[in-house]
């Protein structure tokens, strides 16, 4: 029975740890803070979990917030411009967003109850050799901290040098849910996007608004106005941006009731999308494998981060269970098996951050005309490999549209 | 709906053609002779189909020779030397060998009955552009003929420069089947191997003997004595080789009844194991994909050829059904998805052709002591990726043996 060490207690690390414990494999999870501390920390993310991730959660028996009750089934789209587009796509199975400040501590508790070892420690890079001597396989599952730089970045379209968006993600009251309940994806070409997500928090069902602001695109003030300095000014900035550029969200906002659900319920910043090497050889002959943000950092624009982290955890867990050694052959097999989904998500995310090429503009037009195409595009948020196969080239997009036009 | 052209009507080409027809995809199969002509031709091969291949045949509805009636469930091993080893491994589901002179024409008939187009033509390389213009995707599924050189060989352990064995495969009467019915793998270290296979032919159940003769290893005369020149001398050579080096086969031979089942029921020659590139770009921007022998030529030593051809056909068929374009992205995805199984089979085959390294000798010893290990090793003839994970390195073999010793 191998012994696995995991650094990082986010979705990737916890899913992997729980999956391995389901096979009674000894696992130690290293994290830089008590999982319970997350509950009273700043909002970490607002990502939805799509059906394949929810199925993995059900398989693990950690599904406390069933999608039937707390999920949603639709994407509502708005594409601004001279002739705005409005259309809806429906999922074949619901997605669900829950505040990770509820989610992660709950899964950490499950992990420990099932015999997983959790060590709270600030790891220094110098401790890598020690860790690697202690475990047959070391998995790095955190994009933060001293070990995240272990895996060199891979040049390519999904590795950026600078942030493509300035972000402002927050939880709000005063927004009436869309009907049918769903995410709204509102695109203001050249300026940025708003992603509105129905999300379950400790305070109940609220609304997450993620502002994706193109640097110098006109919406920067949303990401640059700190609500701690002037809460009123922040809200006016957000409302003004919605009013002018995101009408299908704004029309459901009650200005009198509109506010952040709490002072910690907003996070502003930016990330640099980066794909890193799948694995590295460690001194001593063992290997470290990257999963989640240690492997692929994606902008939240199409909500793939947690989903590919969970997918990658499943590929690694299956490989650990099936295999006999944790050598380079093992690592390469993991890399091959997750490439379609994980790199597909990274490339698709990256494409959506760029000024849309003609075939993407054509695709959006076609989605607005053909409900079956919009449904497929929506469902593919759970299957980023399929989405990438549609958007990767103009020929592919044309073939996709042609199939839905004919049908 | 794409249109697919397939060059070559062996297992890879026919399985792929039938799989695509099951999805109503237009397919044209190009072959250099009438499929029915195979029935009266020289023995082409004596390969067993393992359980995963039989399941694909069942899925296609082309299973005329059910494994329950015509298959076998065991491998009987003999390893010669100062302290010979004898041990048996059992499959979890039976394998089955049927003369491809029955098998291939039957599947070609099914293919045509299901709307597949079959063109009998000698293709010249100059016609490649014509073919490629006619089909959205061109698949080359033949290791023979003018198109087989289209895919450059890839240097590596499974690509040899010269044949590692001189081969003599024939069908015989006068051999009592082993009990339980099964294949016998008889190894004469330094000299070669005999693989005895219960096989169904037009004449009923007979015995295939495949002599794998190490060049200059002492058994060359078996591959070098042409039965057409002197049938008696050929049989005496074969019998002599069995008597001295393959006792567990020889003890079941009745010398008075021992003979080839017909003058065409023997084939002598040699092959050069070669792994070729998965695909090439064609003039005009389309791609040709290699499957079966066009992609991977393996020595029959562990009976993988037909099985990986069928597996590769399934990967390609699934990818065609799922995908929108047949570009380089499509080809790379196919390559990634089949690599573990197809290259695993090629590397394992190649390893078994080399003088066995210490960990393989240790493995054979362990298989002879632990029935569960021998069963797994046997079943893995259907799962060459799993087998390669066991034999690829000494560490892996040690881990495999340790698990079965502990159990």
Helix content of chain A: 25-40%
The average pLDDT score of chain A comes to: 96
Please name the CATH architecture of the largest domain in chain A. Answer: 3-Layer(bba) Sandwich
Which geometry of chain A do the CA atoms define? globular
Structural class of chain A: alpha/beta
CATH topology of the largest domain in chain A, anyone? FAD/NAD(P)-binding domain
User: Ends of chain A: how far apart?
Assistant: 52 Å
Unreliable sequence segments of chain A: none
With helices defined by DSSP (H or I, 4 residues minimum), what is the helix count of chain A?
14
**Major sheet of chain A, described briefly?**
9 strands, mixed
* Rg measurement of chain A, Å: 21 Å
Oligomer: homodimer
Number of strands of chain A: 17
Estimated share of beta-strand residues of chain A: 15-25%
Tell me the number of structural domains of chain A.
3
Largest interface: A-B, 20 and 20 residues
The CATH homologous superfamily of the largest domain in chain A: FAD/NAD(P)-binding domain
CATH class (first level) name of the largest domain in chain A: Alpha Beta
């Amino acid at each position: 029975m191998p012994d696995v060490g995991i650094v990082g207690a986010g979705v990737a690390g916890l899913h992997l740890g729980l999956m391995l414990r389901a096979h009674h494999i000894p696992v130690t999870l290293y994290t830089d803070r008590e999982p319970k501390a997350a509950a009273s920390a700043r909002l970490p993310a607002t990502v939805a979990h799509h059906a394949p991730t929810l199925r993995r959660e059900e398989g693990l028996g950690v599904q406390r917030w069933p999608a039937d009750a707390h999920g949603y089934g639709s994407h509502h789209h708005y594409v601004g411009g001279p002739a705005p587009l409005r259309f809806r796509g429906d999922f074949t199975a619901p997605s669900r967003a829950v505040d990770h400040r509820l989610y992660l501590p709950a899964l950490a508790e499950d992990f420990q109850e099932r015999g997983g070892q959790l060590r709270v420690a600030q790891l220094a890079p110098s401790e890598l050799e020690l860790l690697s001597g202690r475990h047959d396989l070391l998995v790095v599952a955190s994009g933060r901290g001293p070990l995240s730089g272990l895996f060199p970045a891979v040049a390519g379209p999904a590795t950026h040098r600078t942030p493509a968006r300035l972000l402002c993600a927050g939880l709000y009251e005063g927004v009436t849910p869309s009907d049918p309940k769903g995410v709204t994806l509102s695109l203001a070409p050249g300026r940025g996007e708003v992603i509105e997500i129905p999300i379950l928090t400790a305070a109940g069902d609220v609304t997450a608004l993620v502002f994706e602001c193109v640097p110098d695109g006109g919406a920067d003030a949303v990401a640059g106005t700190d609500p701690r300095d002037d809460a009123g000014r922040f809200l006016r900035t957000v409302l003004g941006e919605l009013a002018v550029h995101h009408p299908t969200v704004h029309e459901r906002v009650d200005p009198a009731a509109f506010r952040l659900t709490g002072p910690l319920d907003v996070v502003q910043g930016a990330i640099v999308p980066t794909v890193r090497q799948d694995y590295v050889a460690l001194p001593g002959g063992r290997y470290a494998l990257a999963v989640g943000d240690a492997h692929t950092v994606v902008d939240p624009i199409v909500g793939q981060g947690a989903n590919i982290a969970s997918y990658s955890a499943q590929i690694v867990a299956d490989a650990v269970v099936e295999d006999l050694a944790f050598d380079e052959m093992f690592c390469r097999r993991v890399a091959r098996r997750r490439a379609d989904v994980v790199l597909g998500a990274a490339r698709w995310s990256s494409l959506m951050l760029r000024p849309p090429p003609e075939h993407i503009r054509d695709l959006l037009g076609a989605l607005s005309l053909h409900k079956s195409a919009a449904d497929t595009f929506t469902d593919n948020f759970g299957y980023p490999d399929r989405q990438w196969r549609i958007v990767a080239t103009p020929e592919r997009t044309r073939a996709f549209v042609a199939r839905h036009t004919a049908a």
